[in-house]
Amino acid sequence: MTGLFRTLIPKVFYADLTVGRDLFVDGLGFEVLHDDGDFVIVARDGCKLYLVEDAEFAAKDRPELAIETDDIDAVYADIAGRRPDLLHPTYPAGGGIIRREYGAREFAVLDATTTGVVFRDWS
After folding, report:
1. Which domains does the chain have, with CATH numbers?
2. Are the CB atoms for 92 and 98 separated by under 8 Å?
3. E-state strands within 2-123
4. Residue 27: its pLDDT value, please?
5. Phi then psi for 29, rounded to 5 degrees?
6. Under 8 Å between Cβ of 51 and 17
């Protein structure tokens, strides 16, 4: 049987959407598909997010998202070369890519509001 679910699309709230645009568009290279000022849809390589300006919800939760990749070295090199300021300062300590006890290789980025994105490679 073919699955009925296709894509999970998280909604990330920001008090100021310029922070979300900085992380996802300028930092991670997502393309803006829709922007009406307080609601932005961004996508890249099959990943999609809704960025919503809502200070009340942003104050309640700063999410950690994960993106799986088959070439973590290329993703890391791209982000470290263009936007090293986004690399998570303590994940892993000293920077770079870490192999986790469960087998995945990972690194993370963090925006000014502490929304985090973990990049994970299972190969």
Report:
1. 11-121 (3.10.180.10)
2. yes
3. 11-14, 31-35, 39-44, 47-53, 64-68, 98-99, 105-110, 116-121
4. 96
5. 80, 20
6. yes
State the residue for tokens 């310029």.
18
pLDDT digits (tens, 9 = 90+) for 69-104: 999 999 999 999 999 999 998 887 777 999 999 999
> Residue 63 and residue 28: Cα distance in Å, rounded?
16
Check: pTM over 0.85? Answer yes or no: yes
Place of tokens 């049987």: 1
Check: CB of residue 53 under 8 Å from CB of residue 16. yes
Q: What is the DSSP letter of 115?
A: -
Report CA-CA distances (Å) from 20 to 7, 73, 79, 122. 21, 24, 16, 27
pLDDT tens for 6-25 read: 889 999 999 999 999 999 99
CA distances (Å), origin 16, targets 21, 27, 52, 53, 86: 9, 16, 9, 6, 17
Q: Is 52 exposed, middle or buried (0-12, 13-18, 19+ CB in 10 A)?
A: middle
